[in-house]
């Protein structure tokens, strides 16, 4: 506050670019990818098709889909040097730190993907990254547990292949529950893009300096890691575990989140754009019910989450500020029920968001948008002369 005016700073309502990719209406709670409502895509499409849609602007016909899938499968491997890089990370390393490092390292082994000039260059680099990013995501989980790495299997579709690389143990076939694969496919669709969110804006900013695709995506992974952004799904479970450990007194935490004396916020609630229900939240809640029913899960974390949701939705403070559960409130509950460790939740968010980041980066690059260089409001010292050390 400068005493003159109260500044509401930060990239909050900045029109940072012109885009044809994703449309959000925060008041109506609407989300469209290339004009298609997220509800229809979640119900009728699959993640590979949605990746094609985001990257190319149109839904693929059968031949286009098969070609896209074939080109990704051709890249379903990473070099031995990348495996050796992974080995230097301790098991205790957070998988998002490992993922951003390995993603940036892809540049070292695919130098051509830095100088991207034509749409064809972008298509090749995108297909390579889409294939290899799934491997790297699965590898972060294997590294955390000291499990041997599982190679990509081209007999499987993209989501099954990822699930297989994550969970299959050597010398055994993985029993895959179609309900879980279908749930994972929908969750990845719901996370695939979200216009100029923090991590997508980061990818565009880094790309605006003409940095390469892999380096730009690596920056997006790092931005997503923050608990106010993609890290919220991990923070939701940690918050629910804390409430359960503290005797399950949900009202105490709702009151804490409302108090100005505490910096505590209800993780998984609120959104910069949605001043209504997050449309993805409504869809993912149905997916959560299906998965928990399929796995017959009834535990304190789930009960606490449902109690927290019920109390907060009736509370004046949250109603006044239009704070509703967002996509992150439910996704962590599903991942946890699937046996995925909390540190991996944001890695799954990154896997879902990858096609959106690539589409945003490509749009910026091919539109030849200018380098990002915002200005500031300066409130520092006024001009003054240097003072020699002995006179200070
Ligand atoms: C994602 O941008 C995207 O699209 C992101 C995302 C995507 O797909 O990329 O949708 C993914 O990041 C979802 C959001 C996940 N983050 C969380 O769940 C963390 C908890 N949520 C908050 O930190 C917060 O709601 C934000 C960061 C998401 C949005 O913050 P805003 O819009 O900057 O809201 P604000 O800080 O201006 O708060 C407005 C008021 C304040 O109270 P007053 O000062 O008016 O009294 O609402 C309060 C805030 O204190 N508030 C909360 C709250 N969120 C906002 N109070 C308690 N709990 C909360 N979660």
TrEMBL record:
SUPFAM superfamilies, alphabetized:
Citrate synthase (SSF48256)
Q: What pathway does the UniProt record associate with this protein?
A: Carbohydrate metabolism; tricarboxylic acid cycle; isocitrate from oxaloacetate: step 1/2
The chemistry this enzyme catalyses reads: oxaloacetate + acetyl-CoA + H2O = citrate + CoA + H(+)
**Keyword Calcium tagged:** no
* A GO term, aspect molecular function: citrate synthase activity
PROSITE patterns per UniProt: CITRATE_SYNTHASE (PS00480)
What Gene Ontology biological process does one annotation of this record name? tricarboxylic acid cycle
Q: Which domain of life is it from?
A: Bacteria
- Record's CDD domains? EcCS_like
Keyword Transit peptide in record: no
Q: Family per UniProt?
A: Belongs to the citrate synthase family.
How is this protein annotated for GO cellular component? cytoplasm
Q: Extract the Gene3D superfamilies matched here.
A: 2.20.28.60, Citrate Synthase, domain 1 (1.10.580.10), Cytochrome P450-Terp, domain 2 (1.10.230.10)
- Quote the protein name from its UniProt record: Citrate synthase
Location of the active site? 271, 328
Q: Which UniProt keywords apply?
A: Acyltransferase, Transferase, Tricarboxylic acid cycle
Classification via InterPro entries: Citrate_synth-like_lrg_a-sub, Citrate_synth-like_sm_a-sub, Citrate_synthase, Citrate_synthase_AS, Citrate_synthase_bac-typ, Citrate_synthase_sf, Citrate_synthase_typ-I
Signal sequence: where?
none
């Amino acid at each position: 506050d400068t005493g003159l005016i109260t500044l509401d700073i930060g990239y909050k309502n900045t029109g940072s670019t012109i885009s044809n990719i994703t449309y959000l209406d925060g008041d109506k709670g609407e989300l469209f990818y290339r004009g298609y409502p997220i509800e229809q895509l979640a119900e009728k499409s699959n993640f590979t098709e949605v990746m094609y849609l985001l990257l190319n602007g149109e839904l693929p016909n059968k031949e286009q889909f098969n070609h896209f899938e074939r080109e990704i499968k051709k890249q379903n491997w990473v070099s031995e040097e990348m495996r050796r890089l992974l080995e230097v990370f301790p098991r205790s390393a957070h998988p998002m730190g490992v993922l951003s490092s390995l993603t940036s390292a892809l540049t070292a082994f695919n130098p051509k993907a830095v100088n991207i000039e034509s749409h064809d260059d972008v298509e090749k680099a995108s297909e390579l990254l889409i294939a290899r990013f799934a491997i790297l995501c699965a590898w972060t989980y294997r590294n955390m547990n000291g499990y041997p790495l599982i190679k990509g299997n081209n007999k499987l579709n993209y989501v099954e292949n990822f699930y297989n690389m994550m969970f299959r143990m050597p010398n055994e076939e993985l029993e895959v529950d179609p309900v879980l694969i279908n749930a994972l496919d929908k969750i990845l669709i719901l996370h695939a893009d979200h216009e100029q969110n923090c991590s997508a804006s980061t990818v565009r900013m880094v790309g605006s300096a003409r940095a390469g695709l892999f380096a730009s995506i690596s920056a997006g992974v790092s931005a997503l890691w923050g608990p106010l952004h993609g890290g919220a799904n991990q923070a939701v479970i940690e918050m629910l575990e804390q409430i359960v450990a503290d005797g399950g007194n949900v009202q105490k935490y709702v009151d804490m989140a409302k108090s100005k004396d505490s910096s505590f916020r209800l993780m998984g609630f609120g959104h910069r754009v949605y001043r209504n229900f997050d449309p993805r939240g409504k869809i993912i809640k149905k997916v959560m019910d299906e998965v928990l029913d399929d796995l017959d899960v009834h535990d304190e974390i789930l009960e606490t989450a449902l109690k927290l949701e019920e109390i907060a939705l009736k509370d004046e403070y949250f109603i006044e500020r239009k704070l509703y559960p967002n996509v992150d409130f439910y996704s962590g509950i599903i991942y946890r029920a699937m046996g995925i460790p909390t540190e991996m939740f944001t890695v799954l968010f990154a896997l879902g968001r990858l096609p959106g980041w690539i589409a945003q980066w490509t749009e910026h690059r091919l539109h030849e948008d200018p380098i990002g260089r915002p200005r500031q409001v300066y409130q520092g010292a006024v001009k003054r002369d240097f003072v020699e050390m002995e006179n200070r």
